Amino acid sequence: MADSLTDTTSVPELVGLAAADAHDAALDARLLAVPQNAAHTGAGRSTVTNQRPRAGASASPGDTISIWVDDPAAGPSSDEGPDDEGPGGGGGGSRLPDGPKPTPTAGAA
Asked: Ranges for the PASTA domain (predicted)?
């Protein structure tokens, strides 16, 4: 719902909706749902498994809602978004690539 005095809107509940329906619900609330994982399918066959910010939070029109979706054809998504339970931190077990290694140069004579 929009508040005419402060022009804010309430974040809708998107978890459990088909991706296409979640996008429509976000737009109805004057927000934009943005998928955060590669499992999103344009045909809307995927289902929202997590969202940030949570439903009921206050947002400004035009703000984005990050959504994580699964794709039934590929099975459940392994990344269902950030865990809100408990203290965070941690890198998820993935290392960043090391990049090219410096090559030793021959010493000057």
From this structure: 5-71
Give yes or no for a contact between 57 and 11, defined as CB atoms under 8 angstroms apart.
yes
Query: Quick one: pLDDT at residue 98?
Result: 58
pLDDT digits (tens, 9 = 90+) for 72-101: 666 554 544 555 544 444 444 545 555 565
Count of structural domains within the chain: 1
Region of 76 please: left (phi>0), alpha (psi -120 to 50) or beta. Answer: beta
